[in-house]
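hiii so um. not sure if this is the right channel but i have a protein structure encoded as tokens and i wanna go backwards to a sequence. like what aa goes where. can anyone help
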């Protein structure tokens, strides 16, 4: 066993992790909620509460926003870009130094397999490193005016930015928002999901240890209605980055409309993975498995619809079924192939989709039931499930299930695959498996989605912009484009003669 696995085994035995943050993180310190109320967070692998955290209120949100506004106006806006970069680079270093503890907290709180949590924390460090290097490269333009004029632009930070974070990728989503916001010179008030509050708090403390001035990054924990909603309505918040459900995204967008606050919305998906007859079969099989079973399918960009060309279908689904049935189900901290889903309520939701599909006569090739950790008989697990021969009209094909449930649609040819791929209210991601790169690029251009993965699902990194079309939202995170979301362009034009 490696170091981290020894630690994880200890945590599993104890049922909790010692020294978890206690309170909101405001003005550089942990503080209790003004009403002294707390909530409990659950370990989905056992379905048991393991720690409590502060249940925030609108008053806590006000204090955090006030602190972030003050820090913006008095310190961070005017900190030299190179200095901001050094702080973010130091944060990347400290995230790596705390890799094991952060990953264990993430796995315990969200349920995700430890190896995936380790990857997420490594990715968070990489995100800070990437934006650390970008701080002093936010250059403006100069404009070709007539000789008597000069024109140029500068990128100014938008101000206080709110970050509302979901439970499926707590630290990744926090890092993806905090790092570019801080790089641009903005300050942060974050609201992690009530199911997974801890790693955002740990990240805020790490940033503070890295030298981030007090108030530049504040985190308030609590329920969406009690903390998220007042945050989105706060008049001193200048920008909102929201990741989560379409329904809450809509509420957030309406709240933002009150004050004409800027928003970036990263919402759901129902992403197709197109496998054509000439694909490399083994690569496609591995790609489809990862696309739907990583994080138990609770990924906005999960590849949840296999769209397969008829000649490839026979044998391919049988092989997927075989692989799905051999996945080891277990507690996240034991590095299973498939972990639990995040909550009892979410488990019911996933099960409901499959039950309705079954009642409608769907071909459930494997799975289709709620289950538990075979070692303990506990936890909120759902079997890896495949619904074969699905029709474009099926609810299971049209709606985001957000669980380990794959639907399979058969296409007559590439053109039909394209039509099936685009017949969707979402437009987040599409995967394409073919060895004909010309065909892949033709399809990539015609699929209505924010990103396309060719021959490796989830290919890319922090360098590549990410975001949705249609009901998947708008705005882009990651890459330099993600940094620009936190900037206001100011153009300056002058007559000089
Ligand atoms: P949600 O969208 O309600 O929660 C996301 C975040 O928004 C959480 O931090 C929550 O506290 C906050 N929030 C809730 N109500 C708010 C409000 N009125 N104003 C501001 N913030 C608010 O999603 P939830 O309830 O956790 O899950 C519902 C479904 O959404 C899931 O079953 C899943 O299908 C989908 N989902 C999609 C995600 C994605 O990445 N696309 C992530 C999480 C959930
Ligand atoms: Mg939890």
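sure thing!! here u go:
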């Amino acid at each position: 066993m490696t170091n981290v696995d020894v630690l994880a085994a200890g945590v599993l035995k104890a049922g909790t992790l010692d020294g978890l943050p206690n309170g909101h993180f405001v003005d550089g310190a942990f503080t209790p909620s003004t009403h002294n109320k707390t909530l409990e967070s659950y370990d989905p692998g056992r379905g048991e509460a393991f720690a409590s955290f502060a249940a925030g209120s609108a008053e806590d949100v006000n204090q955090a926003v006030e602190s972030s506004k003050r820090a913006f106006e008095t310190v961070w806006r005017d900190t030299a870009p190179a200095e901001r970069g050094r702080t973010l680079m130091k944060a990347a270093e400290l995230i790596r130094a705390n890799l094991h503890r952060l990953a264990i907290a993430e796995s315990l709180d969200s349920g995700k397999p430890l190896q995936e949590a380790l990857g997420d924390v490594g990715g968070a460090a990489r995100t800070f490193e990437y934006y650390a290097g970008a701080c002093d490269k936010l250059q403006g333009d100069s404009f070709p005016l007539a000789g008597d004029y000069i024109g140029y632009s500068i990128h100014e930070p938008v101000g206080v930015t709110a970050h509302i974070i979901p439970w499926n990728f707590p630290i990744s989503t926090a890092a993806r928002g905090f790092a570019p916001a801080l790089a641009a010179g903005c300050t942060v008030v974050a609201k992690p999901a009530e199911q997974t509050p801890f790693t955002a708090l740990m990240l805020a403390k790490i940033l503070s240890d890295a030298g981030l001035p007090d108030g530049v990054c504040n985190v308030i924990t609590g329920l969406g209605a009690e903390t998220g909603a007042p945050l989105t309505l706060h008049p001193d918040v200048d920008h909102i980055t929201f990741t989560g459900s379409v329904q809450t995204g809509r509420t957030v967008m309406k709240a933002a409309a009150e004050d004409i606050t800027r928003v970036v919305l990263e919402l759901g998906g129902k992403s197709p993975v197109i496998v054509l007859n000439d694909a490399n079969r083994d690569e496609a099989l591995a790609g489809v498995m990862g696309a739907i079973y990583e994080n138990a399918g609770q990924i906005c960009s999960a590849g949840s619809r296999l769209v397969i060309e008829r000649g490839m279908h026979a044998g391919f689904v049988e092989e997927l079924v075989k692989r799905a049935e051999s996945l080891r189900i277990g507690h996240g901290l034991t590095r299973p192939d498939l972990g639990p889903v995040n909550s009892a309520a979410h488990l019911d939701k996933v099960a409901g989709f499959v039950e309705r599909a079954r009642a409608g006569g769907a071909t459930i090739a494997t799975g289709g039931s709620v289950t538990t950790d075979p070692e303990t008989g506990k936890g909120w697990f759902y079997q890896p499930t495949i619904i074969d021969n699905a029709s474009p009209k099926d609810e299971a094909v049209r709606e985001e299930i957000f669980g380990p449930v794959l639907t399979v649609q058969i296409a007559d040819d590439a053109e039909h695959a394209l039509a099936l791929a685009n017949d969707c209210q979402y437009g987040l991601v599409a995967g394409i498996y073919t060895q004909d790169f010309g065909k892949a690029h033709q399809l990539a251009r015609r699929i209505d989605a924010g990103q396309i993965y060719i021959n490796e699902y989830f290919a890319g990194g922090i360098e590549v912009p990410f975001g949705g079309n249609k009901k998947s939202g708008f705005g882009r995170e990651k890459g330099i484009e993600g940094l620009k979301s936190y900037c206001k362009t100011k153009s300056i034009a002058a007559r000089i003669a």
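oh and The chain has two domains: 3-267, 272-461.
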